[in-house]
């Protein structure tokens, strides 16, 4: 799965973490591994311009999703297997999201993960215009985010344990020098 990210927002964020959230959501939704997604982080002015131009609404917003109209356009009709599918573009506004995160009582990255999953679901055709649609989409979004956080925390614990094990084994001379972290690179 190809996920490209570009940060033009002027806000430093953990871009690989946003990609991980998008990849996790796409995997959970069983989207083909040949799919392609673009994520763009923009400033308030750029987001306000997009919001007005495409939705005819004033001011910036947190996330916008631009799905591709023809998902099968990248495949020849006689091709045996589907080719890469461009899902579309997600546009996130970290400055707008920062205020939302503060009001919600969580971190900017938690908010950006939420917005990424929300945007991916929009790209896949989910909406929240009607109460039933909103319940379905937000329940799915909440489940995906909870699973993402759980798996991410477990992976971080395993990585930390691996680092500690390597330090201990290296100090005891039980691992090769190139595997054991040296004092200059210790965290």
UniProtKB/TrEMBL annotation:
Its EC number is 3.1.-.-. PROSITE patterns: UPF0054. Keywords: Cytoplasm, Endonuclease, Hydrolase, Metal-binding, Nuclease, Ribosome biogenesis, rRNA processing, Zinc. Binds 1 zinc ion. Its cofactor is Zn(2+). It is an enzyme of class 3 (hydrolase). This is Endoribonuclease YbeY.
């Amino acid at each position: 799965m190809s996920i490209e990210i570009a940060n033009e927002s002027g806000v430093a964020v953990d871009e690989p973490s946003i990609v991980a959230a998008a990849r996790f959501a796409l995997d959970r939704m069983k989207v083909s591994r040949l799919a392609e997604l673009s994520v763009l982080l923009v400033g308030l002015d750029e987001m306000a311009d997009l919001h007005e131009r495409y939705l005819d609404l004033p001011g910036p917003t947190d996330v916008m999703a631009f799905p591709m109209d023809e998902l099968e356009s990248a495949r020849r009709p006689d091709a045996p297997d589907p080719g890469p599918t461009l899902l579309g573009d997600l546009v996130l506004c970290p400055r707008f999201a920062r205020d939302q995160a503060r009001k919600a009582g969580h971190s900017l990255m938690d908010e950006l993960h939420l917005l990424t999953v929300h945007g991916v679901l929009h790209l896949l055709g989910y909406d929240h215009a009607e109460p039933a649609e909103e319940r379905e989409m937000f329940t799915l979004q909440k489940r995906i985010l909870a699973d993402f956080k759980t798996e991410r925390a477990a992976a971080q614990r395993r990585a930390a344990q691996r680092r500690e094990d390597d330090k201990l084994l290296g100090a005891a001379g039980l691992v090769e020098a190139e595997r054991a972290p040296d004092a200059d690179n210790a965290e």
